[in-house]
Amino acid sequence: MTSGPYNYSYIFKYIIIGDMGVGKSCLLHQFTDKKFMADCPHTIGVEFGTRIIEVAGQKIKLQIWDTAGQERFRAVTRSYYRGAAGALMVYDITRRSTYNHLSSWLTDTRNLTNPSTVIFLIGNKSDLDGQRDVTYEEAKQFADENGLMFVEASAKTGQNVEEAFLETAKKIYQSIQDGRLDLNAAESGVQHKPASPGRPLAAPPAARDNCAC
Amino acid sequence: MSSFVNHREDSTVTVEETSTKDNVTYYKITVKVGSVRWTVLHRYNDFVELHDKLVSDHGVAKELLPPKKVIRNKTPKFVEQRREALSEYLKNVFNYLKLTMPSEFAHFLDFHLYDIFFLLQDLAKTLFLEGDNMLENEKSHNFTPLQLHAISERLKMACPMTEKQDQMYDFSHILDFCSQLRSLNIEGSYEKLGTSNIVPNDLHFDLIPFKSLLELKILGVPMACIQSVGGLRDTLISLSVSTASVVSLNEFLLVDILHKDPSSIADTVKWKKLSVINFASNNIDNVDWAIKLVPRLQHLSLSSNKLKELCDISCLHDLRVLNLSMNSFSICENWHAKIEVQHICKLPCLEYLWLTANPVASSIDYRVKVLEQFNARMTEICLDNEKASEKELDTARVLQALRVVKEETTNFA
Question: What's a GO biological-process term for it (chain A) (predicted)?
């Protein structure tokens, strides 16, 4: 048990939010599979992905909820904010409207998550610099004013995608180290990995799941 | 399957009957959630135990429970009175706790067996604690249609605020497990589940959460239950669908495609890695064109079906094993010239062929007649688990020579 997918110490829960078509699912896909999905279908409700990363020598599993950007799914997606340790808020640098909606996304996030939730602003589609509709500077200023972390990234080329997910994790990990984030709080979005295999913490393995009933 | 969070106002709990076993009186509780109903048996002592917890943790009034009675507590009259009192008790407590539905109460009423939300809470906990262990050590994992249905439905729901705040019960752990699972078994049933009116094979589910699945075994689940195969087309290597009354392969291969006509099928619906297909014990009567959606197929078993003929499967260049045993391939006058035999014989990689227990296999010189069709490759073919003997090869070569002469004569004439 020195490597592999089952060796990690923490689980962090993330959500990805933002307007329809800004590339939320593509960012997730780029991060988990290192691939760009050209014809990514609209997300229905929610999508899910995981990946194990390393921060300061600690292996951390990210459980990432990717939400539908369409307004009609808002009731569904809102319910996933709860218990998120990290929120990636995405806009499209080539569409100003997606940037203009950020304040409403931010309000939702602040209302529905806890104070220790790390919010990271991502200006996606940085590969389309020619069609840029939102300058780096103004977004940076918005981020600074609201105490958000910020990068411009490209789900297509992969530029800064890794960084956004990792920096968020670093910040969360830092909060744990500083004691600002209480691991035992119900909605912290951070959990310790359960007891190692072969040494279950509690609960006998439910026969229901193993038998062919 | 019930969905309590959506049917809070349409749910009732009553005690309608009693029964006695080993001199203990059991009260039969009937739970109704929307159109779903089930029953739970509890003795009076179970009520006492539950009540204590509800009083101490959830503010239920202490005097609500009908009192204990030590003597003469078995008379029919008393039991009937107590039944009524317990029914009233449950009704009151249920109304009081309906919004929060604490887990002790939900478990007492068996919600964790029949209700989407409570079943998933228990599953999440199991997978959080044991999931990694299972992924590492289990060869494959069984999910019941009930669990799969619950997962699919839950993904469409806004997740409710619940009393249970512990992150151990978070739905993420289930999807996390599913997204890593490599081998999945699903077994269906037409029998009602437990004491409920839920029939597992009436429940719909999709396989979208399974993102790394290599192996899928489905036993006795009608294909109409499966609404989407998600990303399986990109990952699945081995597929087995048995005793599912499947009539044609496209019932699974195109299960989520609305217009199943060949001209509108794009490359995106191809099963890119699928190399083993086993559709044993179904009702397939023809191998349809959907087989072309599986270009990498190496192993095809259609044992115990109703096949009478085979379509053109010459597109399956990689096919090594073909099991057509226990079907209805029949004898006909010039049967070896029948088109399907030619299709089979032209498969360049074919090594194993089963035709046993077909009417054709009982015909005279059956083995040599089949082997002969393979021409130069007749020595490489293992027919019905047996390679050709020298004697069979000799006879086959004679037959082949005769056929060639015959064909030439026909051509000249």
Answer: Golgi to endosome transport
Q: Which of A13, A194, A213 sits opposite B128 (nearest CB)?
A: A194
Which CATH code fits A10-195? 3.40.50.300
CATH architecture of B4-113: 2-Layer Sandwich (3.30)
Minimum-distance CB partner of B126 among A48, A187, A209: A209
- Torsion angle, CA of B301/B304/B306/B311, rounded to 10 degrees? 10
Contact between A14 and A86 (Cβ < 8 Å): yes
Strands (E), chain A: 10-18, 46-55, 58-67, 86-92, 118-124, 149-152, 190-192
Contacts of B172 in chain A (CB under 8 A): 11, 13, 48, 63, 65
Tallying the residues shown for chain A, one arrives at 213
Question: Do residues B335 and B313 make contact, with C-beta atoms less than 8 angstroms apart?
Answer: no
From chain B, the residues in CB contact with A108 under 8 A are none
Map out the domains of chain B as residue ranges. Answer: 4-113, 178-412
pLDDT digits (tens, 9 = 90+) for B177-204: 999 999 999 999 999 999 999 999 999 9
Confidence of residue B331 (pLDDT cuts 50, 70, 90): low
In whole angstroms, give the CA distance from residue B112 to residue B118: 5
ipTM of model over 0.85:
no
Give per-residue pLDDT as tens, B215-250. Answer: 999 999 999 999 988 889 999 999 999 999 999 888
Q: Considering only CA atoms, which of A42, A26, A46 is closest in space to residue A34?
A: A26
CB contact under 8 A, A211 and B123: no
Is residue A51 within 8 angstroms of chain B, CB to CB? no
CB contact under 8 A, A50 and B180: yes
Cβ-based contacts of A195 with chain B (< 8 Å):
129
Question: What pLDDT does residue B393 have?
Answer: 92
Cβ-defined contact of A212 to B128 (cutoff 8 Å): no
Domain B178-412, classified CATH 3.80.10.10, yes or no: yes
Report the gap between the CA of A74 and the closest CA in chain B (Å). 9
Asked if the C-beta of B247 comes within 8 angstroms of chain A's C-beta atoms, the answer is no
Q: Let me know the angle formed at the C-alpha of B372 by B370 and B374, rounded to the nearest 5 degrees.
A: 85
Strand ranges, E, within B153-302: 183-187, 205-206, 215-219, 226-228, 238-242, 276-278, 299-301
A152 contacts A134 by C-beta, under 8 angstroms: no
pLDDT above 80 for B151:
yes
The answer to whether the CB atoms of A200 and B129 lie below 8 A apart is yes
What pLDDT score does B89 carry? 95
How confident is the model at residue B186, as a pLDDT? 97
Flag the least confident range among A146-150, B4-8, B57-61: B4-8
